[in-house]
Amino acid sequence: MEKIGIIDLGSNSARLVIVNLFAEGYFMVVDELKESVRLGQDMERDGFLKPQRVAETIKTLKMFRRLCDASGVSRIIAVATAAVRRAKNQRSFLDEIQASCGIKIRVLTAEEEAVYVYRGVINTMDVPKGLILEIGGGSTKIVYYNRRNILNYVTMPFGAVTLTGLFSDDGLKPEEQAKKIEEFFTEQLKQIEWINEIDPDVQMIGVGGSFRNLFKINKIVNKYSLDTVHNYSMSVEDFESVYDMLKVLDLDKKKKIKGLSAERADILPAALAIAKSFISYFNFEKFVISGAGLREGIMFNQALPLTEEKPISDVLNYSLTTLVKYYGCDEKHVEHVVNLSIQLFKQLRVLHKFPRQYLRILKVAATLHDCGMKIKYYNHQRHSCYMILNSNLYGLSHRDIVLAAFTACCHKKEDINLYDWSRYKCLLGEDDIEIVKRLGVILRIAESLDRSMSGAVKSINCDILGDSVIMKTEVEGEATLEIRNAMAASAEFRKSFRKNLEIL
Predict the structure, then answer these.
(1) What's the CA gap between 403 and 277, in Å, rounded?
(2) Which are the contacts of 2, defined by CB distance < 8 A and separation ≥ 6?
(3) Which of 155, 214, 245, 418 could join 110 via S-S bond, C-beta 3.0 to 4.6 A?
(4) 11 within 8 A of 136, measured Cβ to Cβ
(5) Tens-digit pLDDT profile for residues 281-321
(6) What pLDDT, in 10s, does the model give residues 493-504?
(7) Which is it for the CA torsion 424, 428, 432, 438, positive or negative?
(8) Model confidence pLDDT, tens digit, residues 194-247
(9) What whole-number distance in Å separates Cα of residue 19 and Cα of residue 302?
């Protein structure tokens, strides 16, 4: 295992992430540090990075270096984006960092930055056709892709920091400034040659700190139960509610809004004005927020160099395998339980009548059903539920994550706490509890049929005869323990499927 540090020096913030690289192309973030340095502030006047901003950035990078050294980081990959890319004093700035911090920074071209953002998104989201809007401090990127290939991109030389500065000295009220930014950005969109060639069924994906902050505010307003920003789906109605609230407030009042970072309070209205213009131009009704972007694009390239040529083909499976390795689950047992669960799901389809999408939920629950043992064996199904709810699962909607978590909670017994269940009513419907119970009993039987973790039960063949389901097992060696354990779920099976269970 190798530990690396990735530094992203943006126009607004400097970020460090420390990443463990595992064998076979997997990785996990183990630490993060962010500082607001405002490197791009006041640059529009003469194109130079200002001494105060440079001093603050170097102070931050020294702190990053100390953390990397203390954490045993073997190498640092540091990149800079729009502000440094445009700075007239770029060379002296980079030399000073190299001399004082021992960090060599690579300045990304506009194309490299757009590609890294795309790679961060495409390797973590299951969105076949997307239009990415990444709002930075000093630049705004739009990337259009379809079938996992970039079709077009553009990097605009302004972002939340620069537009806040450009439109703040006109003596305008906050809402008037926001309107001016909307009009300005709309005019910029009209000048992009390929913008009107975009398919109408494309899905908008928001990337960057402003979108993450938007999620935090909306989460509090709507009392949303998950803390996961990645793949959060937001309606335009909810977006406009937050935007309309923010754009009329002065800075002191904005800083008091729950969920809004004080460091971002002054520039968020400009970012949301960009988003508002973008949403209106394409007439989007909703969008999703990606928690992954440029830094994750770099992580994937470091852990799995093949992603430089083509993206991961199965985002969910890659994510699940990463978690299995990170949590130290028994990989052979996991694979066997998943296979048995799939067999049962398909052979009992005439009873449960679930569409194929629920097989993904069952697969997630079966893969991570034992991860809670990382905390404690006793009642580990509850710990597994919590860990699934709070893991960085890619390629899965928030609703499916919740359903998978509660399904995993039923793999030892029907163990759904109705108080916990009610917390997620914003994502779940009235019928979902029965869905979870049925998927849960399928998982419980599958897990029981590998109770000794020896793979004794090779396959299952189910016959549905009258009021009974007869499961015939193909075994290799002794499987008395497995069959006896699986039969312990017969009462729950009868309750869920209204059939008696026999296992041979």
Answers:
(1) 35
(2) 20, 21, 74
(3) 155
(4) yes
(5) 999 999 999 999 999 999 999 999 999 999 999 999 999 99
(6) 999 999 999 999
(7) negative
(8) 999 999 999 999 999 999 999 999 999 999 999 999 999 999 999 999 999 999
(9) 10
